[in-house]
Amino acid sequence: MNLKHTILALALLCLTQINAQIVTDRPDQTESSSTVGAGNLQIETGVLIGFDGEDENTNRQILAPTTLFRYGISNTFELRVLNQFESLKNNNISVQGISDLEIGTKIQLLQDDTKNTEIAFLSHLIVPTGTKTLNNTAYGTINKLSISHQINERIGIGYNLGYNYFGHDEGDFTYSVALGITITNKVGIYVEPYGEYVNFKDYVSNFDAGLTYLANPNLQFDFSFGTGINQTMNYVSVGLSWLILKSK
């Protein structure tokens, strides 16, 4: 059984998403509909190794690390800063350095406990500050509408619809759907189809799965892996999230 078949088997067996005490925006592709809370700082960081393409056109990507800082201005509004060190290799050509800085916000629009539903809007401005070989040379935006439903105490579903524009072409429509379950009060697992319409023409479909482990109420570790459905792509990632609560 190859990696793609393994992931699809996990999907049929698990049909799950993360639902632990720390609500994070990693390791899945679906951004949560929750904010970190007023005065709290959450640091989410990890390492990813990925491959795409075939034969002589194989690309290797290493993100080591990717770090997202989330700070709560209020209980419904947070500021976000993301940056990463990136290493790319295609055949014998290698480039590495700091990628463009992303600065953004997440605003929670709805929290309806009677319907177990949350809705949030997330937007990032991509600032062309990266290393020359990794710089996009133009400003861009990443935007997502995030919706989640808590089905019961253990099972939840979250999904995103988004639009990304990188300063050229038509931009990309993106989507993701993460379905998951809490196994214990420390362990959660998820599966997730996600993809995009590049320039609103070329459809790219992927799938990933993973787990989280809550080491203590403020520290969570994660592991995830993914594969392409209509393309050749594989990745594996490990990371952690640390919630620093506001001093009382």
- Element-level helix/strand string: HEEEEEEEEEEEEE
Number of strands: 13
Rg over C-alpha atoms, rounded to the nearest angstrom? 18 Å
Structural class: mainly beta
Reported for the largest beta sheet, the result is: 12 strands, antiparallel, barrel
Q: Name the CATH class.
A: Mainly Beta
CATH topology: Porin
In percent, how much strand structure appears in the residues? over 45%
Helical stretch tally: 1
Distance between the termini: 53 Å
CATH architecture assignment name: Beta Barrel
Instruction: Describe the global form.
Output: globular
Number of domains: 1
Percent range of helical residues: under 10%
Strand order of the largest sheet: 1-2-3-5-6-7-8-9-10-11-12-13
- Rounded mean pLDDT is 91
Low-confidence stretches: 3-20
What's the layout of helices and strands?
Elements: H1 3-14, E1 41-52, E2 59-72, E3 77-90, E4 93-98, E5 101-112, E6 117-127, E7 140-150, E8 155-165, E9 172-182, E10 187-198, E11 202-216, E12 219-228, E13 233-244
Antiparallel strand pairs: 1-2, 1-13, 2-3, 3-4, 3-5, 5-6, 6-7, 7-8, 8-9, 9-10, 10-11, 11-12, 12-13
